[in-house]
Amino acid sequence: MISVRNACMEDLYDIARLHALSWKINNRGIFKDRYLDEEVDQDRLDVWTERLKLIPPKQSVILAEEEGSLSGFVCTFLDYHQRWGAYLDNLHVQPDRYGRGIGALLLSCAGRWVTNQRPESPMYLWVFEKNVKALRFYLRLEGKVAGRKMF
């Protein structure tokens, strides 16, 4: 059975590890190989150390767990953009647990959190076009492509 809860500092290493793994699998060809092979683990650990030190009221990190093991997580920021509203910055699921509804569950939890905090706020995210799996996932859940940005 999958349960959800808010993240805390004790979850740091599991979250950072999953985030790095997800990027290594899904962002090959988007990020430089050197970064993914040599730097992403420490980079994600640094990011999550900062984010989990003291979780501000406008940030939510929700975990999905199964039998005490991290299945996935979602991180959302309120009031991130004047027009687009809350920013869904991360949604990652353990690769061996894809297709089990965990991503949809986490997205729903993030949406509920935003709605409870700011009932009128929209929610948005960025997806690399080359990350076809993620793009299909969000479109299947009725996400809409609102624009494109070239880097």
Structure description:
With 151 residues, the protein is an alpha+beta fold. It has four helices and five strands. The radius of gyration is 15 Å and the shape is globular. The longest helix is centred in the first third of the chain and has 21 residues. It has a five-stranded mixed β-sheet with strand order 1-2-3-4-5. The mean pLDDT is 95.
Which terms would index this structure?
151 residues; alpha+beta; five-stranded mixed β-sheet; 5 strands; 40% helix
Please summarize what this structure is.
The chain has helices at 12-26, 33-53, 102-117, 132-140; strands spanning 2-6, 59-66, 69-81, 85-93, 123-124. It is α+β, with helices and mostly antiparallel strands and 151 residues long.
Largest sheet properties: 5 strands, mixed
Our measurement of the CA-to-CA distance between the termini, rounded to an integer number of angstroms, reads 41 Å
Summed up, the helix count is: 4
The 3D shape can be described as: globular
What is the overall pLDDT average? 95
Secondary-structure content class: alpha+beta
Helix content: 40-55%
* Strand content bin: 15-25%
Contiguous uncertain segments of 5+ residues? none
Please list the strands of the largest sheet in the order they lie side by side.
1-2-3-4-5
Number of strands: 5
Task: Kindly provide the radius of gyration, computed on alpha-carbon positions and rounded to a whole number of angstroms.
Answer: 15 Å
What series of H and E elements makes up the topology? Answer: EHHEEEHEH
